[in-house]
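cron nightly-structures :: item 1 of 1
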Amino acid sequence: MTEIYRSINIEAPVNKVFEYASNYQKWPEFFEGVSDVKPVTETIRGNGAKFIYKVKVLGMRVAVGTEIQQFKENEGWIGKSFKGLEHQTQWIFEKLNGNTKFTFIQNYKFPLYFGGKIIDKMFAQHEWIKIIENSLQNLKRIMEQKNNNMFLQSSKADAK
């Protein structure tokens, strides 16, 4: 399996970042290439929640299914595949001086029918790294903008 590990510091409280990122409906807003996220279980948040969605990689849209496991409020979860590309993701949220350190780890196995390890090393791994880095930057931008807007509204209220 190939592993990609990326972290980013976000100037927003961990509970706010976690609340936003753990909402599957928000994933297409920040996670590059993710679309059509739909729950397949009544549980839509936490352990046992299952989702089917599409990811775009190497110019193809691929249906993927993920089940949420080891969900811990404001700390993270593991997403394990049950459909499509074999993968496991880990989402880790840590308090860091009132802000959030977010770490995303992706392990995946590129299928033989797509060219296996050779195509993965030559193309897919580089694309996944770019997708993950862009997605973390998107999450940072969105959360810091929300955090700044809340600060400005609070400051205006205090000034009155």
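cron nightly-structures :: done
The mean pLDDT is 90.
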